[in-house]
Structure formats: C-alpha cells, structure tokens
C-alpha cells in the first residue's frame, strides 16, 4: 500500500513538472518588443538558448521597411520581423508550427 502511494505521488509530481514546459511559440513571444541584438547575443550562447539554434541567420527586407531575420532551428525555421529601430515586432514559424 505504501509503495502504491509513493508511486502515485511520484506520478503527480512528474505530471506537474512536465506541464510547466512552455510551448516553443510561447517562449519565443517573450522576445516581442525587445531588440534583435539582444536575441542574437543570447542565441549565440549555447547554454542559454534551449531551442538549439543551428547555423547562420538570413536577413530579408520587407516593402514596409522592416527586416525579417530567419533563424534555422532543428525542427523549423523561426522568423523575426524587426522594425527600423531594431525592435522585434513579430515572431512566426514556418507553417505556424510549434518547433519543440
């Protein structure tokens, strides 16, 4: 009986911990309103970016004057739209996927 209680408590704790992991898009939305230079700095620190950014970013210009920074991640590319002041105004993924 005690063993069953211990297993039950372990499962409850485990489920609680797993449910605290935020979806990729939710964790990336933290960067909206921040400078792209800050994100680039953090993404270059291997211990800080849990999404495992891999490779060189590409930058494209939009007709409205903003730029799109494409960051390749293992599961899908992430696109940061950045205004003329260097502030991230939007973050999207290819096909609106959650990249975790």
UniProtKB/TrEMBL annotation:
This is Lipoprotein.
């Amino acid at each position: 009986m005690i063993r069953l209680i211990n297993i039950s408590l372990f499962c409850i704790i485990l489920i609680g911990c797993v449910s605290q992991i935020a979806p990729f898009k939710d964790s990336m939305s933290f960067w909206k309103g921040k400078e792209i230079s800050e994100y680039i700095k953090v993404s270059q620190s291997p211990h800080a970016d849990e999404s495992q950014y891999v490779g060189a970013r590409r930058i494209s210009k939009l007709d409205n004057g903003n730029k799109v920074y494409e960051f390749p991640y293992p599961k899908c590319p992430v696109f940061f739209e950045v205004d003329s002041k260097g502030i991230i105004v939007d973050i999207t993924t290819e096909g609106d996927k959650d990249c975790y």
